[in-house]
Amino acid sequence: MPDLPAMSHPVKRSVTIGGHRTSVSLEDAFWRELREIAKGRAETTAALIAAIDAARPPEVGLATALRLYVLSEVLKRQSLA
């Protein structure tokens, strides 16, 4: 049986992207990691989310893009360790 991490329901948060308000639902672990990544880049979480939004293909939802970005950053960090 796999060793599962603590799990939570997705949490919906409002963000402003390009002057427009939108809501994004992510699990708490992804919100925490996004904040840490933004902090490490010396930018706000909203700015990081806006940058990810601008770079994602239109057929990929914002929540999916955010999760995949976080996964990519965590994997990069692990490969450097």
UniProtKB/TrEMBL annotation:
Pfam families: RHH_4
InterPro entries membership: RHH_dom (IPR027373), RHH_sf (IPR038268)
Segments forming domain Ribbon-helix-helix: 10-73
Superkingdom field: Bacteria
Gene3D superfamilies in the record: protein bp1543 (1.10.3990.20)
Entry protein name: Ribbon-helix-helix domain-containing protein
